[in-house]
Amino acid sequence: MYHNSFSLFKKTFLPYTIANFLLFLVGPISSLSLLLINPDFKAIVFFGIAGLLSLGILIWGLVLSVSNGKKYNYRLYHQTGGTSAKVPQNKMPPLLYLTAVIVIELILGIVAAIIGNQMAFNNWINETNFDHDIQYSVRLDTDTNEVSGNNDDLYFPQSELSQISGWDLDKLPSPPESEIHLYLGGYPLDYEGQGFDSYCLWGDESVTLGELFTEMFDSYSWNYPYEQGQGTSLEAVCQKGNQTIVLRMDTELLRDEISIDWMIVEEPGIRINYSNVDSAHLLYGLCQEYHIRTNTQAYALAKDIQGTWINADGSIKLEINDTTYGGDSYSIIAKRDGKLVVSIGRKDGTFDERWLELSEDILYVYDSIPQPSPIGELGELIDTFMRAS
Q1: DSSP label at 227?
Q2: Is residue 354 predicted with pLDDT exceeding 60?
Q3: The dihedral sign for the CA sequence 197, 132, 263, 321
Q4: H-helix or E-strand containing 119?
Q5: Angle, helix 13-35 to helix 92-127, in steps of 10 degrees
Q6: Is the pLDDT of residue 210 over 80?
Q7: pLDDT tens digits for 300-339?
């Protein structure tokens, strides 16, 4: 190309360059199909063909180079009519060619990476057991009590749960929407008993899970499904009649607090997966029914701190509801020594921890001292508030 031998380039090195581009794209994908995806006969054949093509293109390039080295001067002589003064010298074509090769190979590399990642992801999806995931592709026919769609992964709203499972959940009260999150987690009162027996929910601290399950189910046990490595995962396997209800609960690394995950209801011939929201509905209803049976009262500090608070000199008005603390979003992260520990997300992107202690209608707000652990230590008293409403 330096001597403007474009006709010769089109016949020789242009096809060779295109073949290299194709191999640059196909080669990594074929290797990935063999190494990252379960090797089957098709993957091995694909990999073998790519290897043979690579060898063929390598030999092709070698032959072209040898041939060009021997015959190019002869061809250039005919191109210029044997006049050396007419031999062109142009740096631009080879520079453009080199730039184009680099850009195209960069693009093809990105495309190969995207395709390869998608292949690996699809393989992971196919090999991962998603029995506990929620699928929204099926519905319940309330007239015929039949379901359609994928019977391995069903999701139904709370109002339809009892018609499939046989549990009379529609007669159990549903939680207010503002309280659902309080039944999606909890903390330990102590560490007695098995599994999470000594844990209670943020939405009802007056009863432990062990007491609740003992009263409301025929029997129950704790199952350790696998070692999570980032905390503890347990399944409460609860039996009621011919039903088995499995509730999945997890703790994070270095944390004692639990989060409630999915729920499974199994009967002879049917298995239904439900979301963590359905788990919260069930737990709320069980708690309410528990207090009716045992003639007890529910209590939750997370609910009692909600309201409007005024500090002693009236200079600060603090509003706390189910989602905001003084106008900023917050979440409950722990309970220590009778005090609720909350994480507050400020509007400037920072986070603060506060320890909240309630004594009758007086709210004590403490600072939190940062620690290497996920939760800080109790700090100094920041302010004292009286309930306004």
Answers
A1: -
A2: yes
A3: positive
A4: helix 92-127
A5: 20
A6: yes
A7: 999 999 999 999 999 999 999 999 999 999 999 999 999 9
Q: Which 8-state DSSP code applies to residue 300?
A: -
Please state, in angstroms and as integers, the Cα–Cα distance from residue 352 to each residue in 108, 306, 329, 357, following that order. 47, 18, 11, 16
pTM for this prediction: 0.57
* 326 and 320 Cβ atoms separated by less than 8 Å: yes
Amino acid in position 121: F
Residue pair 160/265 in contact by the 8 Å Cβ criterion: no
Q: 236, exposed or middle or buried, with CB in 10 Å at 0-12, 13-18, 19+? A: buried
Residue that is written with structure tokens 């309280």 in the block: 179
Cα–Cα distance list, 75 to 11, 71, 90, 109, 272 (Å): 13, 6, 17, 36, 77
Specify the pLDDT at position 153: 37
- 3-state class (DSSP) for residue 33: helix
The rounded distance, in Å, linking the Cα atoms of 78 and 67 is: 16
Using the structure block, give the residue that is written with the tokens 């069930």. 282
Degrees, nearest 5: CA angle 158-163-166: 105
The answer to whether 91 touches 97, Cβ cutoff 8 Å, is: no
